């Protein structure tokens, strides 16, 4: 039975598409444009997906180097893109704005006042009606984006040019994000991802390291993940951190808002300190300051989660632990990131989200982590 809410939404957006239809373009005509301002819309809220989309920003800037480029993003990804060299303006859109009319009106007014000539709605494996509507609302003469028809949306009928979207991730996530642009000749030869901390965030990171750790190089790890099936057992993070500390390597433990259970489990399992270096949990920090800390660490250990992509973007020598996810699709495109994948899921009475990484032993992870080339700070 059809969802009435979804049917109503499709009817409304289909009607708006008819009212907001933009002039058609071919791929050749698109590339021949000379827009003064370009608006990109990608207000998805997954950090890893946004980092993987940063080569798209490079491709667009290389295609139109003289254009000013703005991006609509979700609050969680503001610091991921804040100092990206291929972006000139950031607009932060919260989904909750639909319930706050005055703030929504202010945001939409700022978006329209930007005066974009061209809007590009960036898609990966999904189609966002909200992103499409924001692109059309921007007032840009030309709006380009993915074809929403395979996802049951008619709003893309208003676009000047519809790009193909492959709903299945059939190549690396960075390449997959670029494919729709590449079909119209918007390309780049550099697939490296980008996250740039601000000078203030780098100063904050330096002060934290000076306050929490002894002078010299340090190692870092992050025991949590956004998805439970991607979490290596916290007591094993504790074991490898103690080995590092006993070997004279101070360890800084990074964590985010979703990592409280993993952090608590790791700290509770941490063996008493001997005569070695300290293992210290950092205070909660912003994504930008976390990126600055990763710029400074000698090596990093984490699960398959958003901070892994940040580490890859800033060049931290990283061991990333994978369970159900294929590292061929999601490992950051950096030679400094090494993936270690669990070969099988162990039966676990706690449920289907458990048992994915338990087959990775402490010895196996320790050998791979210490085998990274590392770097001095």
What does this structure look like?
The protein is of the alpha/beta class. It has two domains: about 5-180, 3-Layer(aba) Sandwich (Rossmann fold), CATH 3.40.50; about 200-370, Glycogen Phosphorylase B (Rossmann fold). The chain has helices at about 5-20, 25-30, 45-65, 80, 100-115, 130-135, 175-180, 200-210, 235-245, 260-270, 285-295, 305-315, 325-330, 360-370; strands at about 35-40, 70-75, 90, 120, 140-145, 160-165, 220, 250-255, 280, 300-305, 320, 335-340. A six-stranded parallel beta sheet has the order 3-2-1-4-5-6, covered by helices on one side. Helix 3 crosses helix 12. It is elongated. The termini are far apart. The mean pLDDT is about 90.
